[in-house]
Amino acid sequence: MTMLHVMLQNTLSTDSNLMFILDLPPMQSKEIMKDHSTSESASTENKLEILIAPPYEKPAGTFAHAKSAISDSDHSTEIETRNRHFRLHWAALEGDWDTAEIIFKESDNDITAKLSNEGDTALHIAAEASSTTFVKKLVEKMKIEDLEIKNNAGNTAFFLAAASNRVAIVKAMMEKKEDLINNKGDNDMLPLVVAALKGNKEMTELLYEATGEELLDDSDRIELLVSLINHGLYDIALDLVERHPKMAIARDKNQLTALHHLAKMPVLRPTSHFDWIKSAMRFLILLCNGVKRVVIKGHNSALRRQFVQDINKLGFRDRINERELQYRVRMGFDYWIEEAKFEILYVGEKTPHTAFELIKCVWKQVLLLDESRISEIIRKPWALMFEAAKRGNDELLHIIWETYPDMMLEVDENHHSIFHVAVMYRQDRIFRFIHKIGPLKKDLIVQKTDTQGNNILHLAAKLPPEDRSINESAVPVYRMTLEQLWFKAVKKILGPVDPEAPNNDGKTARALFTEQHKELSKKADKWIKETANACIVVVTLIITMAVAAGLTVPGGTKEETGTPNFVQRASFIIFILSIAAALFFSSLSLEKLISVFSHPYEETGFDSGLEDLMKGLGLLLISIVFVTVGFCANVFIVFKDGMPWIPIFTMAMGSFAVIILWNHSYISRRKNVGLTREYLRRDIHASLNI
Q1: Which of 115, 202, 263, 496 could cross-link to 89 by cystine, CB 3.0-4.6 Å?
Q2: CA nearest 170: which of 221, 145, 217, 204?
Q3: Residues 6+ apart with CB under 8 A from 551
Q4: What distances in angstroms separate CA 218 from CA 188, 193, 488, 652, one per listed residue?
Q5: What does the pLDDT look like over 621-659, one tens digit per residue?
């Protein structure tokens, strides 16, 4: 027996602790034995914790080898599972159902496995990625209770789908388990509320109709109402207020009511260009569609009356359709005329009539309160009427003033009335109301001065704020001309106010206008002169070409008399008359363009200068048209006998070029140069009834 075995026997007799048998090389075994024998002589109570067996006495199937084998197996399984989850994660993200189906066949547990650090399952990932087909097939394989699994943020896959734009995904889940709409998610929000926050109309309508009334408390309803208004879903918001009237006066987390959000409602802006041909065609198409719909609905009116007995007993979508139909019937043919007019004359998304019905419905509930509560809603946390005036929301102001006319005299902390704000922000549709309040009230408003001593004419003399839509024009002369006309229009309503009255800084309105518009005046002066110079170059070329063409007779002349050979042809007569007309109109255009430089371009000279520039451009356009006609006639003279297809092709291309040139030149003049002087006066003065 070796010394190692003697040591083991002594140890086993004194200690029954578990010993681990390790395989070490012989050299290490001897060293450890030596160390152990030395320590044993020092203390007989030392316990042997590691049993070292030499290779030639290695036991088979020991516990250490079993543990190592189990550990390696678990590690391998863990890696395999992790790799499988990675593949499933990407398959759900990309909508790869074939790969996912293979993985599910390997392990059914992966259907509900957490695949990300956020605790998302394959259904969460696919729903958030809007993988419609993947979700539908996955839902078929899942159990009903599996659809309620939440991630670490507390969101179900249905909640994430409600925030997407895929209505089909939500419908597929609701077919499997309809009460998924009851499960709240992040920030304790219902799927309906998060869908409204995203602004998807179809998704919001679906969930609004499916969500039970008992699921929504007042905080949910006001948050829902605010989201609906901010995303332009006015028909759903109107239905919500009609069913829960107290939401009209409720305040959201920012202490704002529905009226505050409606005051910031976007409004249409007049179009900066106008195409007569396209507008006429569009108008006719809209009217024809309107007539067709009226006739069809007229045939179905009897059936509709039998079906609809009480609008409150209908479903949500039926209520919306019935309300829309009643409005169209009430408006009659005027409905389609208004639709066509807004389609042609304005830019931006048209505000639906349900928005104005919503304002009326909300304001009706506000009027049921006492005076102090009404005043509190209108003024706190900020005065909503002044915000509406800044944005040009004249419909909201008109609805309020119709039943509460004293609100016309409201002033803000700077002593500005609604009409002062309208002048500052160049909102002519609101400013025109000043002519309907009576002469005494109008004079009272006009005489008001703000905290800096500025009267309403001083405010017209200032540049509008940068966020005003009128500043979107890149043409300085157009902006400058509008500023001049606004100043003149406001000056005419001053009445008892002295237009030369100074403010607290001792500046008159005229001096303030000059100071405020100094840089804009320089830019407008530079622009109008550069444009006139460029047009003069073109006109000079046309005059030179017209003179040369008139002296060069096509087809030659007779040697005896000098008479042109084709003098009897109609094409020759058209050629000569066209060249003469081109020369005449280009000469007039040159005269008008030169006169542009004769105007004193200070703060009041751009109106007449712009008028001369517009006339010069119009005459230049006419001369180009006559040059084109003359060229086509010349080609017709030269090639008529030999190759008739050449003049026919030239005439067709010339006609097409003239139409395109006229159309685009008109649009360019309206969009880039601005409007003519007469149109500007009609746009501002007539709209203000001045």
Answers
A1: 115
A2: 204
A3: none
A4: 14, 12, 51, 69
A5: 888 888 888 888 877 777 766 677 777 777 777 777 777
